[in-house]
Write a structure and sequence with these properties.
Elements: E1 21-22, H1 23-36, H2 38-50, E2 61-62, H3 95-104, H4 113-116, H5 118-132, H6 157-160, H7 170-179, H8 184-190, E3 195-196, H9 198-215, H10 218-235, E4 236-237, E5 242-243, E6 245-247, E7 252-254, H11 272-283, H12 321-333, H13 337-354, E8 357-360, E9 367-371
Antiparallel strand pairs: 1-2, 3-6, 4-5, 6-7, 8-9
The structure holds alpha-D-glucopyranose (GLC).
Length: 382
């Protein structure tokens, strides 16, 4: 119970380093929980929903037990400087997507779960459309690099310059947003530090499709189709065979190959030929993504690729479990079972050897970053 009486239940990603609740971490935790304890999974997702505002805004990070400590507080995108209950930033919008998976595991003991959140989930997806797509092209923008969950990905250097998440200038971005009262429409229409992020929009499309099924209302599927068409029309680079983010008001493509350039593979309604190219030209290529362990977060061909631990930066090369959890089933769906088996076996070996770590060296399988990391348990679902 929070001090104001609001009940909560969530899994810390990895205490003591990650004690708070992160939107997408909790979605993945609930998916893993749904395999062994659906009631626990439902509690986690209900908590994520409760962390938001009545207008549909859901925060990226929520400080349920206690506000962020004074040393880490400056790193969070909050309204004030100390004592906030949550960030004003958003995270990859996976809640409706996770809700459907947990609902499927709840048919026997809580069949009402399936429909209980249709209205607030709809409000949340409407909030995103209203506040994050001011140009109405179907693609949402993020205004801070870590809103995609991929904090220090090298793809953000050409977008945020000196203000990337790993540089002191990040603070300027947060201060600017504070001065603008966290009005993201204003930030997107007036400035250059924002990006139509492929992964963020893939998560959005997955949730729109899930809400269409949860609610039985086809309008949500039509909205998903519009997002998917925009990704294909505007982000797909037919020459490179990758999907690139679009930066700033001019919507400049950011031609850096990270796993998110492959993320649309999970959208089953995209043309099969496009999805096959993502697998054949990238995921199966030992110079790019066919690494000895998992799926690297950055193509091994990129100059920025670093397979090892970096004290100040993540998402610059190591393999993460959630990436494999998203991409491997889509590879199977298209018939690439052999590679899918190899990826999973390599992650199984890494976990057997080093436990559930935050990420793994794609070249050696060595466990890196936090220990006992929540979403790495997605391996049980894989
Ligand atoms: C790191 C990751 C982010 C995750 C958070 C909590 O900041 O980059 O994606 O949500 O940790 O686990």
């Amino acid at each position: 119970m929070r001090s104001d009486g609001l009940p909560y239940a969530y899994t810390c990603p990895a205490p003591p380093r990650y004690r708070h609740m992160w939107h997408w971490d909790s979605c993945f935790h609930a998916i893993a929980w749904s395999r062994i304890d659906p009631a626990r999974a439902r509690a986690e997702l209900r908590t994520v929903l409760r962390s938001g505002r009545p207008d549909g805004f859901l925060p990226h990070t929520v400080f349920w037990g206690a506000p962020a400590g004074w040393r880490r507080a400056p790193l969070y995108a909050t309204r004030g400087r100390l004592g906030d209950r949550a960030t004003e930033s958003v995270g990859p919008p996976l809640l409706a997507f996770a809700w459907e998976i947990v609902a499927a595991a709840s048919e026997a003991d809580d069949p009402g779960f399936r429909r209980e959140a249709v209205r607030p989930l709809a409000r949340h997806l409407d909030w995103l459309e209203h506040h994050r797509d001011p140009d109405g092209d179907g693609l949402l923008s993020i205004i801070l690099p870590d809103e995609s969950g991929l904090d220090d990905s090298p793809k953000y250097a050409p977008v945020f310059g000196r203000c990337t998440h790993d540089r002191p200038g990040y603070w300027l971005l947060v201060e600017r947003a504070r001065r603008a009262g966290w009005d993201s429409r204003e930030i997107i229409t007036a400035g250059e530090h924002h990006v139509e992020d492929v992964w963020f929009n893939v998560a959005y499309a997955l949730s729109l499709r899930a809400l269409a099924r949860l609610s039985g209302d086809g309008a949500w599927a039509a909205r998903a189709a519009r997002v998917e068409a925009a990704l294909l029309e505007r982000c797909w680079d037919a020459r490179r065979g990758l999907f690139f983010d679009l930066a700033g008001r001019a919507e400049r493509p950011v031609p850096v190959s990270t796993w998110t350039a492959l993320a649309p593979l999970v959208l089953g309604d995209l043309p099969v030929a496009v999805r096959r190219r993502l697998v054949e030209e990238h995921l199966l290529d030992p110079r790019r993504y066919a690494a000895p362990c998992g799926i690297p977060s950055v193509s091994m061909q990129e100059p920025a690729f670093n397979p090892r631990w970096d004290r100040f930066r993540c998402w610059r090369g190591p393999s993460w479990m959630n990436t494999a959890w998203l991409l491997v089933p889509a590879m199977r769906e298209l018939g690439y079972h052999e590679r899918a088996d190899v990826v999973i076996a390599s992650l199984q070996r890494a976990v057997a050897q080093d436990g559930f770590r935050e990420y793994y060296d794609p070249l050696t399988g060595a466990g890196l970053g936090a220990r006992g990391f929540g979403w790495s348990t997605l391996l049980i679902d894989l």
